Amino acid sequence: MSFAVFQPCTCLDAPRRATFSHSSALSARARLQACATARIAMFLALSLAVAISQAQAAPRPLKSQSPPPSPPLLSADASPSVPVQAANREGADTSPVLPAAQAAMIHNVIASALSFIQPRALKAYTYPQLCLWGLQSLTALDPGLGIHLGNGQLILTQNTPLAPGTILLTRPAPPAQDLKAWVNTVMVTLQTAWQHAPALRQKGVSALLPAFFQEIFSHFDPYSRYLSPQQAHDERAYRQGDDYSIGVKLAERPGRSPTISAININSPAWENGLDIGQTVIMVDGRSTRNVPLDTVQNWLAGAPGSNVTLTVLQQGRRKTITLPRLRLPPETVFPDRQGPYTVLHITHFSSQTAEEVSFYLSNLLPATAQGDDGDVDRALAEKKLRIPGLIIDLRGNHGGTLQQAVMTAALLLDNGIAATTEGRDPVANHVWSVQGGDMLSGSPVAVVVDGGTASAAEVLAAALADHRRAAVVGTSTFGKGLVQIIGQMPNHGEVFVTWSRNFAPLGWPIQGLGVFPQLCLSAPGLPAEAQLAALAHGRNLLEVPLRQSRAVRVETPVSEVLSIRALCPASGADRDDLHQAARLLSSSQAYQAALAGIPDDLTSPAAPAAAP
């Protein structure tokens, strides 16, 4: 992971949860889990990014003395141990003096944020630019205020009916590299504006920082942003999971005890052998018969670290087990079926996604694929076993942790480059190499995407497609190929700063272009039937735009990029998408033709954008 947390995006339309039965013996499951865990550990070691540049990020001393410390970088598993509290009081503040404690916090946050942003931003910005943009927020909060820089002087003005154009402050602009002096200038300007602008005080102290950073990031890109302490807390909970439970969901049976309908595979319940379909007859000694489902589900909840005792019944046999209530990472992978093919819906990429995928892939293997000692890898090496095919559903997946997408690709690739990231800061430059072994031994794979597939999900689709390991089915994806780094602020807020671009294995940028599928379900005038018929005869009707999409580079004009996307417009999910993916997998010749549509080199010139 080039930085431990990359852009996490909330899944707006996550697929319906599907259940996955694990009725095999507990010992076999334990071996599979141990194998999957060991494989993920191996991939974690082998998937470490190799720096494109060996240059180390040297300390960046400020010209002024006593510079503020750089804020800590957060990992996907890290969260502040201090309870999150808002640094600013909500509501209006009629005092003409900015409260000292809150002024000090604003100073520290701005200083930390600017020292974090300036060296890492994808584009080069100076401290004067950042500070002047931020101070423009005063005009947004009170249109009567104005900020001007001219002849080396920073000027704060105020327009009132009685005194238009009144100069409230004139201050020499500090040297461009003097962060401390610029932060002090910002604070003096804020204090002066606060003193003279009742409309600003009416907005309240809590409005100052969000407005300041909103103005700065309006000059960046759609993904760089500031999160207030509460917003940052909520996002961390989403990234890391904030569910304290045993990982069991129940289904009601009127007049009888409830049954287990779903289990989080990251949970104590799964690890201790509970299974879908088992009847929960007692919770902590209390009978569940004729008890409302909500009540029983509440019995399972409790304080973090506390225990709950369940008595379950299956095939006439009782089993009593005590389980701890733990913080569980969110489930992100949900299995389903489409005809003879297993479908893995991946809703987003969190800290355990690759391990979840590895677990389900292990369960897809026939029992004979396990050696006498339960070693799946050894058995696969001795006898290559294949399954009919796999469908990975990434529709509506807005991304998440980049490393997890790379590790998921490593489960299906023998070796190679999954992605590269390039930025202005040398630390942002990485080659994401994988080497481990295809768990499915080349079994056919289709990746289903739509216009909501973005970021880390696009990295996975591009990696599998460019290596001719999977056929992408659907529409052009969103085209979010910018990577954010997160900095924690002194008030427990966070800043997300775009610091690198994602590039696919064949060198094309994901940003703006997205992934162009081998079987397009939105091509104007080119129905899926015609494409599948051509593929079955070894021809890909999308060969021209596929080659051109792989020839795009950062400097390619936007008009050319848009012309490529127009040949397979981004659109939402359709219930027929999985059916079309299954049809492609059902024909070996069509599937191989779809894979071959991806060029293995780009030595010849790209074809002009034209209707296929």
UniProtKB/TrEMBL annotation:
A GO molecular function held by the record: serine-type peptidase activity
Sequence ranges assigned to domain PDZ in this UniProt record: 244-316
Segments of skewed composition (Low complexity): 73-83
GO BP annotation list: proteolysis; signal transduction
Residue numbers spanned by region Disordered: 60-93
Tail specific protease domain location: 316-522
Pfam families listed in its UniProt record: PDZ_6, Peptidase_S41
GO cellular component: outer membrane-bounded periplasmic space
Protein name: PDZ domain-containing protein
Taxonomic classification: Bacteria, Pseudomonadati, Pseudomonadota, Alphaproteobacteria, Acetobacterales
